[in-house]
Specification:
The protein has 75 residues and is mainly β. Helix content is 8%, strand content 19%. The protein has one domain. It is globular and about 35 Å long.
Amino acid sequence: VELDERGKLKDGKQPERVDGQYNIYDSVPGMKQYSPLWQFNYVVVPRDYEPNTLRSEADCLGSGYPIVKSTLVEN
């Protein structure tokens, strides 16, 4: 998976979401590392991935799946 300078896939498409998968946040308001700016990271999972198997940052990091950091930021 390769992203362009805007954080989009090289072919101009957005990454494909897994239906039913909730977003995973590494911090919430009140935590020291919390920021109202969210930078998206994409976890590249196999087609047979079961939604919500990954539920935390630690799950993602320990999964062995590739993680692609985008340049997209949302406030």
